[in-house]
Design a protein that fits this description.
This protein is α+β, with helices and mostly antiparallel strands. It is built from six helices and three strands. A three-stranded antiparallel sheet has the order 2-1-3. The longest helix is centred in the N-terminal third of the chain and has 14 residues.
Length: 109
């Protein structure tokens, strides 16, 4: 049996929410403006994004990126977490066939 550990990016909801709020303010939009752009009946969805409770859908991120004139990568803030996979098959080899320092996947016995 072998295990492999690697760094996996995950969305940092709080930081992404702060970024959305910051970009909205920098561009001079109110929450109501954003609500109107998306046709939301209530502003709760926008507040939930800004508070880091939810992340916008991909479609909504595309709209926000265009509205704020930035890339999606500038809106979505990620952090890395270490993940370990244990497997008794050759599937691990598909992730990494080298055990080198520069590799994003590191094999351990």
């Amino acid at each position: 049996m072998r295990s492999i550990t690697f760094q996996k990016p995950v969305v940092d909801l709080k930081s992404t929410g702060n970024k959305i709020k910051s970009l909205r303010k920098e561009c001079g939009f109110s929450v109501r403006d954003i609500q109107d752009v998306f046709g939301f009946e209530y502003p709760q969805a926008v507040y939930a994004w800004e508070q880091g409770k939810n992340v916008p859908t991909i479609d909504n991120l595309l709209v926000l990126a265009r509205l704020f004139e930035v890339s999606i990568e500038e809106i979505v803030i990620s952090r890395m977490v270490e993940v370990e996979i244990t497997c008794n098959s050759d599937k691990v080899e598909k992730l990494c066939n080298k055990n080198c320092d520069g590799c994003k996947f590191k094999l351990s016995a």
